[in-house]
């Protein structure tokens, strides 16, 4: 089952059920007005939403045309956004780019930061910034899950059963602000502006065999200004699965329904090394920081600039037949005001 | 005007307007069912809430009895909880207790972390933990504000005008988990379990002259197991006012209505030094970490233990006549399960 939120001038938008091929949708207002309302009462609402999804698949004339450009993020705002860094390969590369060493414990103890969740961008909304000088605007292509209510102290195995929905994410990062913030010791804040999520959120069963062991085993297609930039497999080199990430988040407190947990930037190793651009036969990258780090190692300095006003980023995932699963995140960087 | 949220079995509770003396309340359902709904549409809803408040003050028989024990936190869950550390004195002491030096920039650049906001505790709810061994359970007495919609890049002066409500907070901290988390560089997560807020949230004009220049100029009364533990003045030694804290939070993104911004642990210096317990003529402390640090300096080791199962913490603020302004946070630490 696929769900989306259409913009309608309200803060939380309007929940719709979307056909598997993303062509049509049916308003879900009779079941739940918003996705948060559905998650708050999932046991009662889910069967009604699934009935709408069945109608869409059975009757090709049912519903209205679905437009990704009309979408807000599935949760336009959420009560929690906790982003892991499960591709430890990425963490190691970014740290090396900053000249910082990575502790060995990072391979066994998940990294996770608390993100801002009050004002997500829609999947086609621009990334609006006051400056593109020095802030180091970067995309981060990720997979994210939405949970039901999670009790404190949940095990990773139990947590896997509490994944309600799966989405893609652009965790926008301001690389130029990160070193200063991390030096202060309180984690990211200004360096992590509003994130954007894919038009559709999909139930795990809607992903078929690609969803297993708490991971999504498909390439994440990242584009930059219309060119393929990354196609790293989200199921490969994911050191911690979503069950482990949720359990980490719930160690000392329960998590409310509608909590979003992110995977961190998807990143694959290549022959034990840091990987290569797509043009050179590699799977490329899901953020600019990685390629800049490799350029620094190879040539002494980064060549690829961070995002400038006018640059366009896309994030998508397709099935075996090349059809978009979640719809496409496609954002342009624009100057504020 | 004072607002509170009564528990009613739903996730967001039921909004009520409370009389200035905290004796009675009137349901606000006709204006807005929940506090978040009121904040989402404040311009339209505020006059209706104020009319209810006037009825309560004019007619001593109006309303139902108000019970602090029936309260959830004013926002039982929120879209954002960003906690500053505006009492730099406190930051310096806690760092010294950890053997860490504080950079000079901390006096000019606010510290702030993104907190979890999906599952706040009610003001009289227990603090439930699986263990009190090694986790270092501590209270942190704070002042917090709730904002309206804040545009990206807001100035501190503009931000002061966007403070909708003021509350007290117990920002529960797990001191034993902090050093390990901060060493990982991503800030607090497991070390900051669910916070609790005061029964009432009060509009700035409801605080009279005590609210000025973006600060609340009254002592924060912290109790431990029935004994006075702290009475530091929240308007003294607050290096950054709430306007500055909000502007810091909004540097690279807008803040959604209902964002909660915390002051950090209230802490006063004394004669240039770290202060003394109330019993020794000082204003005491708003958390255990501070007194433990001073004990360490004076005697080589801390004497005051962190909170154990059964310990009780209270946080309150009274007006010139000794009447409670926000109602009392009063929580006991209990074992999970």
UniProtKB/TrEMBL annotation, chains A, B:
Pfam families linked to this entry: FAA_hydro_N_2, FAA_hydrolase
InterPro entries xref list: FAA_hydro_N (IPR041072), Fumarylacetoacetase-like_C (IPR011234), Fumarylacetoacetase_C_sf (IPR036663)
Fumarylacetoacetase-like C-terminal domain segment(s): 81-333
Residues of the Fumarylacetoacetase N-terminal domain: 1-77
Gene3D superfamilies from the UniProt entry: Fumarylacetoacetase-like, C-terminal domain
Domain of life per record: Bacteria
The entry's keywords: Hydrolase
Top EC class for this record: hydrolase
GO molecular function, one term: fumarylacetoacetase activity
EC number of the protein: 3.7.1.2
Protein name, per record: Fumarylacetoacetate (FAA) hydrolase
Species: Parvularcula dongshanensis
Taxonomic path: Bacteria, Pseudomonadati, Pseudomonadota, Alphaproteobacteria, Parvularculales
């Amino acid at each position: 089952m696929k769900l989306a939120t259409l913009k309608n001038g309200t803060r939380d938008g309007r929940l719709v059920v979307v056909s598997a091929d993303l062509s049509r949708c049916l308003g879900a207002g009779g079941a739940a007005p918003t996705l948060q309302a559905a998650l708050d009462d999932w046991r009662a609402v889910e069967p009604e939403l699934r009935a709408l999804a069945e109608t869409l698949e059975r009757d090709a004339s049912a519903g209205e045309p679905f437009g990704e450009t009309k979408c807000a993020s599935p949760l336009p705002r959420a009560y929690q956004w906790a982003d892991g860094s499960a591709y430890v390969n990425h963490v190691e590369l970014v740290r090396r780019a900053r000249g910082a060493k990575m502790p060995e414990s990072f391979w066994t103890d998940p990294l996770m930061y608390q993100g801002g969740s009050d004002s997500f961008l829609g999947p086609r909304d621009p990334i609006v910034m006051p400056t593109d000088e020095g802030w180091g605007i970067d995309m981060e292509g990720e997979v994210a899950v939405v949970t039901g209510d999670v009790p404190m102290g949940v095990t990773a195995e139990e947590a896997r059963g509490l994944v309600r929905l799966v989405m893609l994410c652009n965790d926008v990062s301001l690389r130029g602000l990160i070193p200063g913030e991390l030096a202060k010791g309180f984690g990211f804040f200004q360096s992590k502006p509003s994130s954007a999520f894919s038009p559709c959120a999909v139930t795990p069963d809607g992903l078929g065999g690609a969803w297993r062991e708490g991971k999504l085993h498909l390439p994440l297609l990242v584009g930059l200004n219309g060119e393929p930039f990354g196609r790293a497999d989200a199921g490969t080199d994911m050191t911690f699965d979503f069950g482990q990430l949720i359990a980490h988040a719930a160690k000392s407190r329960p998590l409310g329904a509608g909590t979003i947990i992110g995977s961190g930037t998807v990143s694959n190793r290549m022959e034990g090394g840091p990987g290569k651009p797509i043009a050179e036969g590699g799977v490329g990258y899901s953020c600019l920081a990685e390629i800049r780090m490799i350029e620094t190692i190879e040539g002494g300095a980064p060549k690829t600039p961070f995002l400038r006003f006018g640059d366009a980023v896309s994030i998508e995932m397709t099935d075996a037949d090349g059809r978009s699963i979640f719809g496409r995140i496609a954002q342009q960087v624009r100057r504020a005001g």
